[in-house]
Amino acid sequence: MARIGIRKPLEGILTHLQSLDVLNFAAIYNGQFDMLDGSEMYSFPMPCAFIEVLNPAASLPLLGGFIQKDIVFRVHIGVDFYNDTNGMMEQNFVVFDVRDAVLRAMNGYKPENCSTLQMVGESQDYAHTNVYHYMVDFATTFIDTTCDEQETDDGTMIEVGGITLEVNAEIQTFNFMQLNFIAGFDESFNDDFETAYTIADNTYGDLLAPEHFTREMII
User: Fold this and answer.
1) Residue 70: beta bridge partners?
2) Is 53 a domain residue?
3) Residues in a beta bridge with 25
4) Last residue of a domain, one of 83, 114, 144
């Protein structure tokens, strides 16, 4: 697997947003709404959505050069609206329809190398012109493998230091009769248990069986 930085999750989210029928445009956030307010020569189709990456917490270094980050993807929604003839003076309900569609699409979506997105906040810009600016925040945990010590950019495995470590773990049979003999419990201890019961017999889908604990690792 190739190294993955923040670009891959961003591209995935943009592609996901661009597939929504309620949006006519989606891109990286670069203060586009401020440019509109400043009457600069800049325009884009609406309704629109722009994605911004926030890093509210410090990064956590992991083994092998991996980096864990708790980040927030903020979706900036833009909807232009003019007063209509039905008495809807300065009341834009369309922006809430777009907000609902974005929330349905994003909440639970899983970008590459991220946990599933969860909506954690939202806010609205009340000082605006005809363009309504609505923001929705989605939190996730991202594993950045940009500095992966065992991978190359094209996904080829490399050896670091020429050391191969083989880890073997064996799960022994847990015999309650033997436990009684060693620990000195009386025979009533076994009343609720079947003797010669193994850990593999009483695990989640046999996930703790010995074969799941033997592997080779390159470090």
Assistant:
1) 141
2) yes
3) 48
4) 144
Q: Write out the residue range of the structural domain in which residue 93 sits.
A: 7-144
The verdict on whether omega for the bond into residue 47 sits within 30 degrees of 0, i.e. cis, is yes
Strand, coil or helix: 64: helix
Residue 60 · residue 141 · CB < 8 Å = no
Number of domains into which the chain is organized: 2
Q: Which residues pair with 136 in a beta bridge?
A: 75, 122
Q: What is the pTM of this model?
A: 0.65
More confident residue, 190 or 181: 190
- Predicted confidence (pLDDT) per residue in 83-126, tens digit: 655 655 567 788 999 999 999 999 999 999 999 999 999 998 87
CA distance 168 to 68: 28
CA angle 46, 83, 37 (to 5 degrees): 50
**Ramachandran region, residue 74 (left: φ > 0; alpha: ψ -120 to 50; beta: rest):** beta
Give residue 187's identity as a one-letter amino acid code.
Answer: E
Q: Return the residue matching tokens 């909440």.
A: 107
Both 42 and 97 in a single domain?
yes
- Non-local CB neighbours of 166 within 8 Å, separated by 6+ positions: 215, 216, 217
Residues 136, 119 contacting (CB under 8 angstroms): yes
- Strand extents, DSSP E, the chain: 25-28, 48-54, 60-61, 67-80, 118-125, 131-144, 164-168, 214-218
Q: How many C-beta atoms surround the C-beta of residue 148 within 10 A?
A: 19
Nearest to 120 by CA among 172, 73, 164: 73
